[in-house]
Amino acid sequence: MSRIKRLESLLLSINSKKHFTLKELAVEFKVSTRTIQRDLLSLMEMGLPIISEFGPHGGYRMENDRILPPIGFTEMEASAILFSLQPFEEESFPFQIQSRSVANKLLQYLPEDAKDRWNVVQKRLFVQNPIPKNGSIAPVILEAAIKQKIMTIHYQTEGTKKYSNIQPIGIYSENGEWYCPAYSYSLSDFHIFCVTDILNAVINYEPMEVKDFSAVTIHNWVAQIDPRSFVYLDATIEQDGIAYCQSHAYLKILLKVNEDGTATLNGRILSSQIKKVAEYLWSLKGNILLHSPYEIRQLHQHWSEEISLKYSSVLNM
């Protein structure tokens, strides 16, 4: 048996034992105790928590935090693990140290081209809970965004089914839905597609002139909106509302935190997304002072009046 094979088998063996001696392992692997001792030292240098105990009943044991045997991952599996670990690297998470350790180990052994692909994935995907249940087309959209390819989609909007060629920026989840900001070649501008509205999607691998979105990501795409298609959002956010904006896939792009503890939301928003942005800002309750656009202020006022009327009718009963 080669030394590498023996080390792998030795790791599996001691990982299943609470206590072991050099003699026991030497008999098991049919080598000398000196050879086993060298192998154990090699495993300890690799970071295995092996503790030696002295005395008449001495020997070796593994610490409580035992090491799993080697597990092979594909590059995409490693990327999936890295992405899954991101929310758990905050200091408040009980296993924050272990989460960072796993991420560092995976990044250490990823080939350079796989690291580059992982960096691209982070530019094209943003996930927040709850995870959407329906998303069979989401992997195809993500692939097109990563490869910067144009895709043809068949989608429904306001009861009408349409075809369109789009170049997706990426996908993000929000309130249990997947959304895809993309450049629509039929609209000659950016648009946000709800992925559940997309009935079919096919990547066009034929040579086509695509736009260079290498610097445009799921985190900054709003800045690319054509001036003819947007209204300007200007709002002051109080300190209690900052955390909500920072955790929001869309609002965080427009957020600027000031030294005095307040913050502002400034930037362009699609005219077609006014109602959606109004819903985002509605969650801030009294922690926002909205300066513009007027359309969102109107919506908020209308919603407030609707709620007031409902409560008034209840109180007058």
Automatic annotation (TrEMBL):
Keywords: DNA-binding, Transcription, Transcription regulation. GO terms for molecular function: DNA binding. PROSITE patterns: HTH_DEOR_2. Pfam families: HTH_11, WYL. Residues 3-62 form the HTH deoR-type domain. InterPro entries: CBASS_pafABC_assoc_protein, DeoR_HTH, HTH_11, WH-like_DNA-bd_sf, WH_DNA-bd_sf, WYL_dom. SMART domains: HTH_DEOR (SM00420). The keyword Isomerase does not apply. Gene3D superfamilies: Winged helix-like DNA-binding domain superfamily/Winged helix DNA-binding domain. PANTHER family: PTHR34580, SLL5097 PROTEIN. This is DNA-binding transcriptional regulator YafY. It comes from Fictibacillus barbaricus.
